[in-house]
Write a structure and sequence with these properties.
Length: 424
């Protein structure tokens, strides 16, 4: 039996107003997750609304005409649902995990928040103080601080370079009416994706979404585009002096946007490079050289840009060595083919992780929402696994040569001393 036949299938229905409803039904599961995604976020914010998407994410839990903030929390609690939300550069995602039998009731609360939240003035002022504390927390947490700084630096001059939280100045100045205007201009039907994963019927969710989200304004938000000829700010390094025991750094290389033809080869590449204890970074940086406790690689992919990012924390006097070694491991892919044994093990790690993730409906509801947005339709797990299985060692090497050969990454660091420079 092929992978596509043995894994859950996904379905998508587009409502008359443009809302997409996607589902991955997994019979037999006790739990399910449901989410509502707004495909407009930080990258679309004008200067006077910096941080508005994230601020509104907080405020959607603070009351509608029929539910107060306490009632929203109490209703989720009374039915045993666990609700949350997050904001990224390109999306705001509201979701909840519950028993499959109460997903309709759970979705009713989420939909009321999404469509009808009215951002009460008193709640705006209370939550303003909370967001300002979150900004300070990110400044005081070195790993979060350097991640944010890397993102701002790598994507400088691009709409993706805007900070998700905004700044203390922008959050302190934005008024309730401006937040409401921004919400009404961006929470539109064609930018909305409803996703559900677990033991829930697709057609029933379509009917409920049609009823619950029918009042959502139609249309699509205006998306900020990158300037013609924009390039990521690689070949530069920046250090932020702080009296820390370690020097933490991110280094990054440009990648093609999400949905690119190399994405399955990149998944195999990233698995071998920096995912898990068997990765080349873990073995070389940690096990052989004792340079770091934590080291890994990751990919950040967006609609029109992406990056391969490497993170490590090391001592100040060995930070340059760590940067050089990490860069050397990337370049190694350009010089030699990975062994068939390593390739097979990486594929099996990916296959096992993705199949085991099917037991986590929260992970799945995010995945099908994300692939729907970035690829235009939800990607079945089986389809992606068959593409992974077909990747060859030659393809990984050729892709690495195409994307990374002669590329000097961006390096951003925080810690004592002068910090590392670019790799030698």
């Amino acid at each position: 039996m092929s992978t596509t036949q043995s894994t859950p299938q996904v379905r998508m229905t587009t409502l008359s107003n443009g809302i997409r409803v996607v589902s991955q039904q997994i019979p037999g599961m006790q739990s399910a997750a449901v989410g509502i995604r707004n495909d407009s976020s930080t990258r679309n914010e004008p200067a006077d609304c910096a941080g508005a998407s994230h601020f509104i994410e907080h405020l959607l839990f603070k009351g509608t005409p029929t539910r107060s903030a306490d009632q929203i929390t109490d209703e989720f609690n009374s039915i045993g649902a666990r609700a949350n939300a997050y904001t990224s550069q390109e999306e705001v995602f509201y979701y909840a995990v519950a028993l499959a039998s109460i997903i309709p009731a759970t979705f009713d609360i989420l939909a009321d928040m999404f469509v009808n939240s009215w951002l009460p003035e008193t709640e705006v002022e209370k939550e303003r103080a909370v967001v300002l504390q979150e900004i300070l927390m990110n400044q005081d947490t070195p790993s979060r601080f350097i991640y944010n700084q890397f993102h701002l630096g790598f994507w400088q001059g691009h709409p993706l370079g805007s900070p998700i939280l905004g700044t203390s100045e922008s959050i302190g100045a934005i008024e309730r009416n401006r937040l409401m205007d921004y919400k009404l201009s961006n929470y539109l039907s064609s930018a909305t994706i409803v996703s559900v994963a677990g033991n829930v019927e697709h057609d029933r969710m379509v009917e409920q979404a049609d009823r619950a989200l029918g009042a959502l304004p139609t249309g699509s938000p205006q998306v900020k585009q990158q300037e013609q000829g924009w390039q990521s700010a690689i070949g530069e390094n920046r250090h932020f002096p702080r009296p820390l025991e370690q020097t933490l750094f991110y280094m990054g290389y440009p990648l093609p946007p999400a949905g690119n033809q190399h994405r399955h080869k990149l998944a195999v590449f990233n698995q071998i490079l920096g995912t898990g204890m068997n990765s080349r970074l873990f073995r070389e940086v940690r096990e052989r050289r004792s340079l770091a406790y934590t080291v890994y690689s990751m990919m950040s992919s967006y609609t029109d840009s992406a990056a391969l990012m490497i993170y490590a924390g090391t001592s100040a006097d060995r930070a340059q060595e760590a940067v050089d070694v990490c860069h050397g491991e990337v370049m190694r892919f350009c010089e030699e083919k990975v062994s068939e044994e390593m390739l097979a093990a990486a594929k099996e790690q990916i296959r096992s992780a993705r199949l085991m993730a099917l037991d986590d409906c929260e992970t799945q509801v995010r995945r099908i929402s994300n692939t729907t947005s970035l690829l235009g339709a939800p990607e079945p797990v089986g389809v992606s696994l068959e593409a992974i299985a077909a990747v060859t060692a030659e393809e990984v090497r050729d892709m690495a040569r195409l994307l990374f050969a002669d590329v000097v990454p961006r390096v951003e660091s925080v810690g004592s001393g002068e910090g590392p420079g670019l790799p030698c």
